[in-house]
Design goal:
The structure holds two protein chains of two kinds. Chain A is an all-beta fold. Chain A contains no helices and eleven strands. Chain B is 0% helix and 48% strand. Chain B has no helices and eleven strands. In chain B, strands 2, 4, 5, 6, 9, 10 and 11 form a seven-stranded mixed beta sheet that branches. Classes of the chains: A mainly beta, B mainly beta.
């Protein structure tokens, strides 16, 4: 079973707009990670946020974590057509590592 | 630096046939993971190795699936016999440390189709 669920399942935006996707999970975590998967390819790590962190930035990515609500969000600013991919959150509980169901992002040029 | 290598990239077999997937992790990575990914879903862990020891195989269907990581480097995942429902992408990943504390690096996956 998968612990995380992303919302929305699919998102379509115009190039230059910001994209926000959310992840909810069920149990306490050590850290939460976001990965990107282009069609037919493996997953690529984007960013890791630890349970004692609330916000983290990496380039055009901004991740927030609210452990009280057991949720995280990934913001991609100034989106590009190359950002078109599926995005997955992954939670690490210390002993287990779970991926969410993913958000499919389409950026229209 | 070479990434995680998987072979074959694609495999088509008939049901009840055996199939094997191979993974070579990034050099120096102690931890190796096998995941199953169904269409439109996130990866689901099948087995995790730390060096040559399988430390988490709770989600591996042991009646038909087996895996090994001899010498703690490359790994093989086998299905025997394959069923129609095994059609999926099988992903291999590796990391320096265990338990998801560090980034996992994924291979391109093996896409299996069971007819």
């Amino acid at each position: 079973s998968q612990q995380g669920e992303e919302d929305p399942q699919a998102l379509s935006i115009q190039e230059g707009e910001n994209a926000t996707m959310n992840c909810s999970y069920k149990t306490s975590i050590n850290n939460l990670q976001w990965y990107r998967q282009n069609s037919g390819r493996g997953l690529v790590h984007l960013i890791l946020i630890r349970s004692n962190e609330r916000e983290k930035h990496s380039g055009r990515l901004r991740v927030t974590l609210d452990t009280s609500k057991k949720s995280s969000s990934l913001l991609i600013t100034a989106s590009r057509a190359a950002d078109t991919a599926s995005y997955f959150c992954a939670t690490n509980t210390g002993n287990q590592f779970y991926f969410g169901t993913g958000t499919s992002l389409t950026v229209i040029p | 630096e070479a990434g995680v290598v998987q072979s074959p990239r694609y495999k088509i077999i008939e049901k009840k046939q055996p199939v094997a997937f191979w993974c070579n992790p990034i050099s120096g990575h102690n931890t190796l993971y096998w995941y199953l990914q169904n269409l439109g879903q996130g990866p689901e862990l099948l087995i995790r190795y730390e060096n040559e020891e399988a430390v988490d195989d709770s989600q591996l269907p042991k009646d038909r699936f087996s895996a090994e990581r001899l010498k703690g480097v490359d790994s093989t995942l086998k299905i025997q016999p394959a069923e129609l429902g095994d059609s999926a992408v099988y992903l291999c990943a590796s990391s320096l440390q265990a338990g998801g504390q560090e980034t996992q690096y994924f291979g391109p996956g093996t896409r299996l189709l069971v007819l």
